[in-house]
Amino acid sequence: LQLQSDHCVDPGIPVNGQRHGNDFYVGALVRFSCDAGYSLSDPEPLECEPNFQWCRPLPSCDALCGGYIQGNTGTILSPGFPDFYPHNLNCTWMIESSHGKGVQFTFHTFHLESPHDHLLVTENGSFPEPLWRLTGSTLPPTLSAGLYGNYTAQIRFLTDFSVSYEGFNITFSAECGSSVTGMQGVLLSPNYPGYYGNHHECIYSIQTQPGKGIQLRARDFRLEDDDMLKVFDGSSNQARLLGVFSGSELQDNTLNSTSSSMWLEFISNAENTSKGFQLHFT
Prior knowledge:
By secondary structure, the protein is an all-beta fold. It folds into three domains: 1-61, Complement Module, domain 1, CATH 2.10.70.10; 67-176, Spermadhesin, CUB domain (Jelly Rolls); 182-281, Sandwich (Jelly Rolls). Helix content is 0%, strand content 44%. The strands form five sheets. Strands 7, 9, 12, 14, 16, 18, 19 and 21 form an eight-stranded mixed β-sheet that branches. It is flat, with a radius of gyration of 25 Å. The chain starts with 16 loop residues before the first strand and ends with a strand.
């Protein structure tokens, strides 16, 4: 006796993923997606063919070694997570957020072989001199990369030929405002040169060499009349107020600090928005 079937068998669900569609008749399409941080090995749907077989094997959801991530939120996982990561890895992730926004990294899992396996975080591609070099099993604090000038952060994961652990699970989100250290640089309003959004409360902090002042010049400055930029001569909003600016009041003007720090607060309301600002400091 041979049993007749009019549908394909259940194709299953990828580990760390989901299936979309529960009809398995001939001609039915079943699609799949992956949890945050995982990539689908084959994005094409499965089709139940006339011979009651699926057209291809079940795809997998994999944590990949590096990649380019564009967006204001996301997840970065060590390869193989939550299983132990492979040996001899050299993985680089580039994260690009909206213009004028920094990126905040939050660590949910972190366990590397210390000191041989490590994670490097930088914002200018300079891995020989990273912002942070992380290893071991202590959960790092929340980290922020300023991203002014190139709007990207980079993470590199390096492992050796021996012991491995479960690795890391990191989420990131775009943050407006940042802390900038250096002799010169550029500050941009969120999404510049596009229009900034509503309900922003962005803090920008500039720190230069001790004993040096800061000169801030607005190359472009267009705010709605009820939105404002406050500029303080120091390292907090308790310092002397240099001015509160709306509309085009700061356009082509220059502000000078008497200290080696400057603190800026950008506030937008729920009404109309505008192009924002491009500020250069030296």
